[in-house]
Amino acid sequence: MKPGEIIVQTVEQFRDWFLANKHPIKSPFTDPVYYTDISMSFVWYRAAPWQVELYMVRPNTVAPEHAHPDVDSLEVYLSGTFTLTGLDNSIELSQYMDTPRFDGMHRLFGQTIKNPPDHAHGGVFGSNGGVFWSIQKWVNGVTPTSVTKNWHGDTIGEHHKEVVTPPVQDSTA
């Protein structure tokens, strides 16, 4: 095993590695920032096929139903008021909005929602917007870029239409 090498098989194991190693930053030099008409993401960590994107979404917006065909991901709640829709284990936030945890953090901080490849989902973002990590395993031999690009479904405005591209096959896979 090489220093820093990740020995995991599943996106859940990668999440556990990422959190246990105190969220290491390994952002790529090329194209580390992506945005749509309502959000911006930063590629926090990339070591193909593994990737972590930090997403920040504007308040009072909606991400229409869509899928990421080449990405197995876990969405990790960090802050804001939002509900991810179309996922079997979506967290309904309204019951947790009024009171913080004992330490002042949001009660849902760190909660995780599974988002399998090609599974249709969306998001409804309230008055505080939303911040979350998308912890990803890229599949089907596709080179990691951003889930903003690996997108099937209605796009989020004119800029996003220009960003969505067909996947690039990884010649090393």
- Identify the CATH class: Mainly Beta
Mean pLDDT: 86
Broad shape: globular
Order of helices and strands: HEEEEEEEEH
- The CATH topology annotation reads as Jelly Rolls
- Beta-strand content estimate: 35-45%
Strand segment count: 8
Domains (count): 1
Low-confidence stretches: none
Structure characterization notes:
The structure is a single chain. The protein is mainly β. The chain has one domain (11-150): Jelly Rolls, CATH 2.60.120. It has helices at residues 11-20, 158-163, and strands at residues 33-35, 39-47, 50-57, 61-67, 71-85, 112-115, 121-138, 152-153. Strands 1, 2, 3, 4, 5, 6, 7 and 8 form an eight-stranded antiparallel sheet that branches. The protein starts with 10 loop residues before the first helix and ends in a 10-residue tail after the last helix. The model has no long low-confidence stretch (mean pLDDT 86).
Short structural summary:
With 173 residues, the protein is mainly beta. It has helices spanning 11-20, 158-163, and strands spanning 33-35, 39-47, 50-57, 61-67, 71-85, 112-115, 121-138, 152-153. A hairpin with a 2-residue loop joins β2 (39-47) and β3.
